[in-house]
């Protein structure tokens, strides 16, 4: 029979189970900026790159910001079951490739992916034990300012994104956590994300995540 001290010592060597984190939020909330900052700070996560059929924007890098592919290639990925989930957002297709997610989890590494609200609902059906985090702008007024400053949407598209954002915020019950991303305080948002991950690692009953 093991001594109590032996059992206590074993607790300090319990393996940490990998997490799969889905980061979502309205367009303009700062999901890309937060993930970029986490990479800059060297936070040890597998950053899953989404595939999309939309046009590449200025300053975006193929295979880093997104995998920019044709509609035909996207359809092939669906047919060959290469996508964990996919959805049509603002007239363009977005999807999460399954292989890098499975590989990261199998190797015991935490993975994070940015997805829209449709993606969150889809992932919940496949990986209900994933960690769902909603990135929230400080206000709708601030969100509108950020979207205008991007200069990537027409007046019609801008109005559509703001209206969609209002509906997306109503979906907060889908999420486990909310993170406020204030203007010029991105490091605070990153710190909050790190705190969430740390808390998840300290759960008495860890999440069972596997593909």
Count of individual beta strands = 9
- The share of residues in extended strands comes to 15-25%
| Global morphology | globular
The CATH H-level homologous superfamily of the domain at 15-48 and 97-201? P-loop containing nucleotide triphosphate hydrolases
Radius of gyration (Å): 19 Å
Number of helices: 8
CATH topology of the domain at 15-48 and 97-201: Rossmann fold
The CATH architecture of the domain at 15-48 and 97-201 comes to: 3-Layer(aba) Sandwich
Low-confidence stretches: 7-11
Give the quaternary arrangement of the chains.
single chain
Structural class estimated from helices and strands: alpha/beta
Overview of the structural elements:
With 211 residues, this protein is α/β, with parallel strands linked by helices. It is 42% helix and 18% strand. It has 8 helices and 9 strands. A hairpin with a 2-residue loop joins strand 5 (83-89) and strand 6. The two termini are 36 Å apart.
Task: Briefly say what this structure is.
This protein has helices at residues 4-11, 31-40, 71-79, 98-106, 117-126, 140-150, 155-169, 186-201, and strands at residues 20-24, 46-47, 51-52, 67-68, 83-89, 92-97, 111-114, 131-136, 177-180. The protein is an alpha/beta fold and 211 residues long. The strands form two sheets. Strands 2-7-1-8-9 form a five-stranded parallel β-sheet, sandwiched between helices. Strands 4-3-6-5 form a four-stranded mixed β-sheet.
